[in-house]
Amino acid sequence: MTDSKYFTTNKKGEIFELKAELNNEKKEKRKEAVKKVIAAMTVGKDVSSLFPDVVNCMQTDNLELKKLVYLYLMNYAKNQPDMAIMAVNSFVKDCEDPNPLIRALAVRTMGCIRVDKITEYLCEPLRKCLKDEDPYVRKTAAVCVAKLHDINAQMVEDQGFLDSLRDLIADSNPMVVANAVAALSEISESHPNSNLLDLNPQNINKLLTALNECTEWGQIFILDCLSNYNPKDEREAQSICERVTPRLSHANSAVVLSAVKVLMKFLELLPKDSDYYNTLLKKLSPPLVTLLSGEPEVQYVALRNINLIVQKRPEILKQEIKVFFVKYNDPIYVKLEKLDIMIRLASQANIAQVLAELKEYATEVDVDFVRKAVRAIGRCAIKVEQSAERCVSTLLDLIQTKVNYVVQEAIVVIRDIFRKYPNKYESIIATLCENLDSLDEPDARAAMIWIVGEYAERIDNADELLESFLEGFHDESTQVQLTLLTAIVKLFLKKPSETQELVQQVLSLATQDSDNPDLRDRGYIYWRLLSTDPVTAKEVVLSEKPLISEETDLIEPTLLDELICHIGSLASVYHKPPNAFVEGSHGIHRKHLPVQHSSIDTGESPVSSGPAANIEQTHVIPSQGDLLGDLLNLDLGPRSTCPRCPPCRWGLWTLTVLIACNSVLLLQVWLPAVKAKGLEISGTFTRRQGQMYMDMTFTNKALQHMTDFAVQFNKNSFGVIPTSPLPVHTPLMPNQNIELSLPLNTIGPVMKMDPLNNLQVHTAHETKSKAVILTFFPIYFSERQVFLATWKDIPNENELQYQIKECHLNADTVSGKLQNSNIYTIAKRNVEGQDMLYQSLKLTNGIWILAELRIQPGNPNYTLSLKCRAPEVSQYIYQTYDSILKT
Amino acid sequence: MIHSLFLINASGDIFLEKHWKSVVSRSVCDYFFEAQERASEPENVPPVIPTPHHYLISVLRHRIYFVAVIQSEVPPLFVIEFLHRVVDTFQDYFGVCTEAAIKDNVVVVYELLEEMLDNGFPLATESNILKELIKPPTILRTMVNTITGSTNVGEQLPTGQLSVVPWRRTGVKYTNNEAYFDVVEEIDAIIDKSGSTITAEIQGVIDACVKLTGMPDLTLSFMNPRLLDDVSFHPCVRFKRWEAERILSFIPPDGNFRLLSYHVSSQNLVAIPVYVKHNITFREGSSQGRFDLTLGPKQTMGKAVESVLVSSQLPRGVLNVNLNPSQGTYTFDPVTKLLSWDVGKINPQKLPSLKGSMSLQAGASKPDENPTFNIQFKIQQMAISGLKVNRLDMYGEKYKPFKGIKYMTKAGKFQVRT
């Protein structure tokens, strides 16, 4: 009696048998056969070869059979476009059927047949259906426009269907309105710039009316659409909010969350001191709490969104921390999210409860969860100062459990607590040291090493402890190596007499045996510091560290505001703007929270009433483990060469950038923002009117403004130095960039670098985060000169030959290209069909280079012969040629 | 919008797929299987999984994963709510929502899915509309269909689909007109080891079974409506009237439906109807542990606490238990370490207890984690929040209906830590 009989197949002749049955005389047999075909289709079997036979069954007055055939058609029409045309006639006929159900079904199915050829035949019936007297047909037709647009967007526009769709927004039936909105929203997703949904007050009014009467799904579409509207003043915003608020009590959680989005967005427009504003805030809390009593999946999505909401408006849920307490049979993904929100809501008032909970969680079974709970205790200590002492004692209790991963996690957070409250809890160091042997994760080892180094003077056997780590130096991760290096240097500066050998050992390990540039550079810096000026070294290495800030991993305010506009969407689940991950939405306008128009001139700028106001007070420190962690641990102090830079830290980056002489190369990013706390520097070298310039663009990608920029060049092979200080006088605001040109000359001290083209530049800027950057890059300069007969004067052993490969230019273009880069061709001759170009160039430090470029027609490989008294530069000249010719 | 749906059973086979737009290859589910492998428990599979070109949003119900595939920015809750609706519909149609039931009714399932979603847009999800379009399979109807050659697909446009009351069909007729309301409250609570309440909240629902002729217009009023400050209504409830007068006024759907759900938050004082005394100890170095658990009622206003079931996941180090229940029976699964004690009714004069010893792995250190007890119970004739219905009135029809109201309190996620 059941449908499972359709699955029982017999032997190999299945398709053949079905074919026979489909062509059976009896209607009943045919229906059974189609059912079998559908059953086969559902389990993924290929039954496309039966297409003509199934289509033959379409002409029937039996609705069920018709539907089944339609089902089949939708699935397979794509593979058999020619056959599918056979079905068109039936569709057109069905669109005229007196029964609206059949009309709607036909228009629905036609749209699902994703075959280009068919779409042309579809236009007329669709146009009729869009104006059908029956709303059921109209609403189906609205969706069909979206389907058609997906297949052939151009045609939909040409046929004017978009206008018909817009007209449907004014339809008398709310369901039709909802579907029209849904279809338009979907279409506009692929049409980022077209203003398809023209949201004006009249349309908004229609949508709000339809909102009350349409189905829950329609309400979601309408609410999402409303959230894109920007009310012109607070009165309009308030009246929309009033009509949206009842949706917060809907049983469908998606409706609730979409309503929350609209309200969160429009709240921005309401005056903060009005009664309505405060009532609305109160009304937002219960529905959010209710979402958490839903199924775990609903909870998860709700929690990800609540995470955003509590960051934007913590007052909404500050009383509700208990609903975020974890139940032990919550799925792990719910547990982790709840924990995150608990910390965001933790305050002096509830910290006792929160801590008791966290301690409970730390004894659970799931490792990920336990770790996060331990980390959460540390975050509480940093966030709520009054609780620090209790947090520390809780952590100590946990360390006593000796559960390996708990201990490791606890040590990592204790390091942060030490940073936050220096000289307060060092008495526990002894307890920590007992657990040294059990640490096997890099994070925990690095944390422990940092603690030992920082408090070396209080730990009697600090040298032994650090020495024990040194034994397996090369097997450690970079993070541990760097920390260990710094820790031993600290130890040496504190107890120089006993640890000389140790510091020697670590410096040689870092500089000679390691092939990690960061480690090596840090090693060299320490070495030079220690060998030249131990007093400065002490000042630098043991300088006061800035306090770490209270809030960890907050979302950047601008991103947060954007995400608030996307509450309920995938973006809100991933905490990323949609264009970062949704395919085909690159052009989507980024959404912004509306800014309140201050109608009264209070002297307050509109920005300060908007969300940007608190940017300056927000400190964001990046989470552990990224590159910045290294920077913070570097512990190098102020340097006299950077007088305008108060106590700050120095980082070190190696960048190998090939810069051609004076050529107009594209700006290159010398220093990406992630490595420099938000300061991005890109730049190039140019020459204008015989003067060299370093052209740079500084972009502030951090949250705070940056001031006091300074630049300094180290001694280099060419004596390049800046002739003036950095012309930056105004603070660089977040997201602002500044372009500047730094004139250079070559009268500075010369020191031969290895490689020759290394130029070490320090740029410094004073921000609250105090990041400083060093870069290295190669540089060349040349000048026009007549070709001299000195070619022969230079000994032949100084001549070097290079091949420039895969270059398809003729001699004239080559010479033009080089000339643009200030390499002038002195002579050109043709020897046995080969073009010979002779060029000369002079570097700023007076080194002459003579070049002969041989170009054979038809051969993409050129031969470059270089002669120079200092043959070591030839390699770089060759690279320069290569890059000029290939750009 | 929703692109495709895959149904996957517990052993990881895709047993049904349905595409509303172009066909998405099954291989997209590989990402789901990966996530499934990583998850320690079936319910720990994350509900939203990104893949290079699609997003997979899944719910697990009745040991079946319902995996929806989406391609563009779609509200995940929209998808999740829709999947819930699919599950509910299957259950409604086939009585159970199992792999076997779905396979047995695969054509109906396909017809239903086709009717519920068009090009990814929800079309008809209200059960009474669907039932008019596609008749639920019954043995009788299947036989009639086979004999007469008629179908189980409705030929007419469902009447409710476009009316202002889409949830109710017209022309309903009953000989016995009756309206029953069940007020069911679930307590979610966490009790700490000292017996004090960490958090307690009540999730309440009013489920209705209304079988009334014609177009009745009902009003329901409460003795203490102030309790209900956080409510979600069925679309039939007139929100304005509730805002103004705290009265529920509605034209009910026909048959069973959930009139409203409400939430009494942890900020109100929530009565806890049972208490647990426990003493569970492991000693360092000993291979024995003591287990002692006693239950008792409190604040039940004289109503009996029934169907009590205590379950707990004991620490991994526990090999076996040897316990003695004063009433009911207990089971312990040495593999999963799941202890479950079916207590039955609590007699306030003679409190039920479960005492005895646990044997631990010899030589192992004492377990770090303490077991948490999950307690289930039922109390009839009482809504623990104190919510009481005042009266139910009917307008718009002339007959006198039979009215009934029932209260019940249950444990939801009721956990006692030790």
From TrEMBL, chain A:
Pfam families to which the protein is assigned, alphabetical: Adaptin_N (PF01602), Alpha_adaptinC2 (PF02883), B2-adapt-app_C (PF09066)
GO cellular component entries:
clathrin adaptor complex; cytoplasmic vesicle; endomembrane system
List the keywords (alphabetical). Answer: Acetylation, Membrane, Protein transport, Transport
Q: What residues form the membrane-spanning segments?
A: none
Among Gene3D superfamilies, the record links this protein to: 2.60.40.1150, Leucine-rich Repeat Variant, TATA-Binding Protein
Q: How does it sit in the membrane?
A: Peripheral membrane protein
Domain named Beta-adaptin appendage C-terminal subdomain: which ranges? 781-886
Domain Clathrin adaptor alpha/beta/gamma-adaptin appendage Ig-like subdomain: from-to ranges? 663-777
Cross-referenced InterPro entries: AP_beta, AP_complex_bsu_1_2_4, ARM-like, ARM-type_fold, Armadillo, B-adaptin_app_sub_C, Clathrin/coatomer_adapt-like_N, Clathrin_a/b/g-adaptin_app_Ig
Give its localization.
Endomembrane system
Alphabetized GO MF terms: clathrin binding
Q: Name one GO biological process term.
A: vesicle-mediated transport
Where does this protein chiefly localize? Answer: membrane
Q: Which SMART domains match?
A: Alpha_adaptinC2, ARM, B2-adapt-app_C
Family from the record: Belongs to the adaptor complexes large subunit family.
Report what the protein is called. AP complex subunit beta
TrEMBL record, chain B:
Check the record and name the InterPro entries matching this protein: Adaptor_comp_med_subunit (IPR050431), AP2_Mu_C_sf (IPR036168), AP_mu_sigma_su (IPR022775), Clathrin_mu (IPR001392), Clathrin_mu_CS (IPR018240), Longin-like_dom_sf (IPR011012), MHD (IPR028565)
Gene3D superfamilies xref list: 3.30.450.60, Mu homology domain, subdomain B
Record localization:
Cytoplasmic vesicle membrane; Golgi apparatus
Pfam families per UniProt: Adap_comp_sub, Clat_adaptor_s
> Would the keyword Membrane be found if you checked this record's keyword annotation?
yes
Record key words, sorted: Cytoplasmic vesicle, Golgi apparatus, Membrane, Protein transport, Transport
Q: Which PROSITE patterns match?
A: CLAT_ADAPTOR_M_1, CLAT_ADAPTOR_M_2, MHD
Q: How does it sit in the membrane?
A: Peripheral membrane protein
Q: Which GO terms describe its cellular component?
A: clathrin adaptor complex; cytoplasmic vesicle membrane; Golgi apparatus
All copies of the MHD domain together span 176-417
Q: Which GO terms describe its biological process?
A: intracellular protein transport; vesicle-mediated transport
According to its UniProt record, which protein family does this protein belong to? Belongs to the adaptor complexes medium subunit family.
User: Which PANTHER family has this protein been placed in?
Assistant: AP COMPLEX SUBUNIT MU
Designated name of the protein: Adaptor related protein complex 3 subunit mu 2
Q: Which organism is it from?
A: Neogobius melanostomus (round goby)
What phylogenetic lineage does the species belong to? Eukaryota, Metazoa, Chordata, Craniata, Vertebrata
